[in-house]
Amino acid sequence: MSRHESKAGGTFSLVLHTHLPFVLNHGRWPHGADWLNEAVTESYIPLLDAAQRLVREGVSPKWTVGISPVLAEQLADPAFQRELRFFLEERFRACRENRKEFLRHHQDALARLADFWEERLTRVQDFLHRLGGDLLGAFRTLEAEGHLELLTCAATHGYLPLLSREESLRLQLQTAVEAHRRHFGREPRGIWLPECAYRPRAEWVAPLGSASKRPPRIRPGLEELLSEVGLEYFVTDTHMIVGGRPLAVYRTQFLPPRERPAAPSVPMAVGPRNPYHPYRVVSEGGRGSAIVFARDPRTTLQVWSRDFGYPGDPWYLEFHKKHWPGGLRYWRVSENRGDLGAKEIYDPKVAAGRVGEHAAHFLGLLDDTLRAAVRAPEAPALVCAPYDAELFGHWWYEGPAWLEEVDRLMARSLIRPRTLGESLAVHQPQESVSLKEGSWGDGGDHRVWLNPETEWVWERIYDAESSFFDLVATLPPEGGDPLIPRLLAQAGRELLLLQASDWPFLITTRSARDYAERRVREHHAVLKQLLEMIQRVTATGRHSSEDEVVLGEIEQTDNLFPNLSVARAQREGDKGSGAPS
Asked: What is the pTM of this model?
């Protein structure tokens, strides 16, 4: 699309959310560190490579990238580098073994694809070598040069609206800001709320467990807690602002083709309240506010849905069919709802041609959307497009190349890519709103994370919150046995890890149910063990050598957030948690 062909102008804000739960030291395959390695090699490196290539061409991508603190901790851990080297060695071995197998059976086209994968892995390896393995440093440099903006997230991606203690939310948010500052050298301005889940200021009682027996209390809206730690803005789903049915398309990526529902056509959400400019979120009686950006449903569905959008193109690489041993993919989508056994062989050259066509189509769709959303010439529209970063490269192999081509075309149009922070200089919020409670999950509410299959998870979380913060409140501010601060910090880490939204999500979607259930039980048990040690050491005034050994082993396994501070969250939290309003 040339400059004169673009009619509307306006702003396009792409938001990519990168996140994985803490998997280092907790298994490798099929569930564990290999999740991290796949995300790095299939999504994060291709996206970084594309961004750097655009910059060299004189095109600033202006992406907003949310990096969850728990992911940053893992990428900075030397154990990750060791795991990644082992992972790449295994993938190279798979290429060689697959090639031999295919040639033995005279499957020349598949053998050439084994070469294709080996060449791609070599590029990944070379890219890592150029960075010295420092992925966070590459993101940091791109932000310092003005090409990206980095958002934070809750520390371990805790599902914030359902946590029962305000101390928990403050611990999640304060730890997140500290970790972001430590890794990226600056304060984050914005946050990706886990699962885009929001809660307003309102009277609340925990939905189950012993916490449900406490009297109702008024809990602050999330915008108040964000304001406390200096976070200015966040992203939410369209229905949270304009009403209607949520998209909830991302959950379908876990379903095999025959079980995926058909994605509906989504009309423009244009009206008195629409997603094409930011709003200021306030709660009646609350202290503090934040700015919210809503995702555009029309362009989002075109990119996200395998059934409606680009990833389902028959020439693109099929995610669900893999060759074993090695787990490499050699087939294309073909007929999107067909049996996996009927998939045809992938052709990278044809797929690359489709990337250009789809990039041009997207620019046309984006231009039409911006043009229809303009209410006055002096008030250009903003399209916010938030996605899980793993969509690009992992779920949709051609996604990074598509995004790169979109940016090239946009540079020759009137549409201006801007980070969320930059967009506020052009698109000031014109209205204050009160958001309803919800998420971007199925149904637009909490049902993906809280349902009959996950109630036991929340019972453990609520038990852990009460046990932890009630004990912390009884401890003297200083003095006592020198092991207590370490025990307390590690107990805080276990609480944060237990609260990760990933565990109930994986249980509900059945994508890694056994693993998620095990992790919930492990973190809960370790937390209770640490609390018992704290009580015993406090009562006796001394610890044993065995206590140090046990704590050292736990610290080595769950070794994230070295500067974690429980005291501030407790001091500023709702010490009367459960007190009537």
From this structure: 0.92
Per-residue pLDDT of 470-505, as tens digits, reads: 999 999 877 678 999 999 999 999 999 999 999 999
Specify the amino acid at residue 390: E
Closest CA to 297 of 246, 359, 355, 331: 246
Q: Give the tokens for residue 562.
A: 């070295």
Residue with tokens 């640490």: 530
Amino acid letter, residue 188:
P
Backbone phi, psi, residue 29, to 5°: -140, 140
- Predicted confidence at residue 573, as pLDDT, reads 56
Task: Check whether 258 has a pLDDT greater than 90.
Answer: no
Percent of all residues in the chain with a pLDDT value above 90, rounded to a whole number: 75
* Catalytic positions, written as ranges: 195, 388
Place of tokens 């004169």: 4
Cβ neighbours for 214, distance < 8 A, ≥ 6 positions apart: 205, 206, 577, 578
Report the C-alpha gap between 457 and 552 in whole angstroms: 27
Rounded distance between C-alpha atoms, residue 415 and residue 412, angstroms: 8
CB atoms within 10 A of CB 246: 19
State whether the Cα torsion 194-183-395-385 is positive or negative: positive
The amino acid at residue 401 is: A
CA pseudo-torsion sign 167, 173, 176, 180:
negative
Chain-centre distance for alpha carbon 455 = 23
SS3 state of residue 84:
helix
Q: What is the 3-state secondary structure (H, E, C) of 461-527?
A: HHHHHHHHHHHHHHCCCCCCCCHHHHHHHHHHHHHHHHCECHHHHHHHHCCCHHHHHHHHHHHHHHH
User: Cα separation of 199 and 219, whole Å?
Assistant: 9
Cα four-point dihedral sign 75, 81, 87, 88: positive
In whole angstroms, how far apart are CA 108 and each of 50, 202, 342? 31, 64, 18
The H or E element containing residue 432 is: strand 432-433
Distances (CA, A) of 328 to 274, 305, 317: 43, 23, 11
Please give the domain boundaries of the chain with CATH numbers for all domains: 3-444 (3.20.110.10), 455-572 (1.20.1430.10)
Q: Are 323 and 98 in contact (CB under 8 A)?
A: yes
Who contacts 370 (Cβ-Cβ below 8 Å, separation ≥6)?
A: 8, 9, 10, 12, 276, 380, 381, 383, 415
Quote the Cα angle for 61-33-127, to 5°. Answer: 40
Q: What distances in angstroms separate CA 57 from CA 14, 60, 367, 393, one per listed residue?
A: 19, 9, 23, 22
Residue 336 confidence (pLDDT): 66
Residue 398 tokens read as: 């051609």
Give the integer Cα–Cα distance in Å for 116 and 110.
10
In sequence order, the 6+-apart residues with CB closer than 8 A to the CB of 81 are 133
The model's pLDDT over 108-138, given as tens digits with 9 standing for 90+, comes to 999 999 999 999 999 999 999 999 999 999 9
